[in-house]
Specification:
Helix content: 10-25%
Number of domains: 1
CATH architecture: 2-Layer Sandwich
Largest sheet: 7 strands, mixed
Mean pLDDT: 96
CATH superfamily: BB2672
Structural class: alpha+beta
Length: 195
Amino acid sequence: MSLADIRKLVTLVEETRREGLRAVTPPTRKAAALAVIANPFAGRYEEDLSTLIEIGEELGALLGQQAVDALGVAPFEIESYGKAAAVGERGELEHAAALLHPKMGRPLRLAVKQGAALVPSAKKRGAPGLTLDVPLGHKDAAYVRSHFDAMEVRIGDAPGADEILVAIAVADSGRPLPRVGGLTHEEVEGKDGLR
């Protein structure tokens, strides 16, 4: 039985074919899977946030798999990932942190077949229609500068005051036309999460 009271699921795919004056071949592709859920602690202080921690694990599996499936690639072909949450006006930032940090990473890593690096994250509070920037970083090596990126997502009617908007994003490449140096995807060892 699901712990999350899900009102809405949305999946987005973004494909960049041109950056500035140049074609991007092959195109860079990102996908995000979003859920709008009821916030069980909206409008009240609760010391024990374990319910949201468990919901985070559940959403890590659901949204991670939906995002990978949206790109239509094998899980090992995912190069970047990230997560974000926005609480409605009656929620706390700590509610977003409870979803994102203790348990969401493990099922996301299973969905992308590895994931040695920390999963970049962001959290905020706001009204329906807010823009949420989901940070992206290389899944196996934090020092790969070409993969420092983000995916902008938005749902017009979320989060409501008593809701939380949760997003997981993945990409099958780094930024289009990267050229700021540093460790490349091809040089990644994927052992320590850094290199």
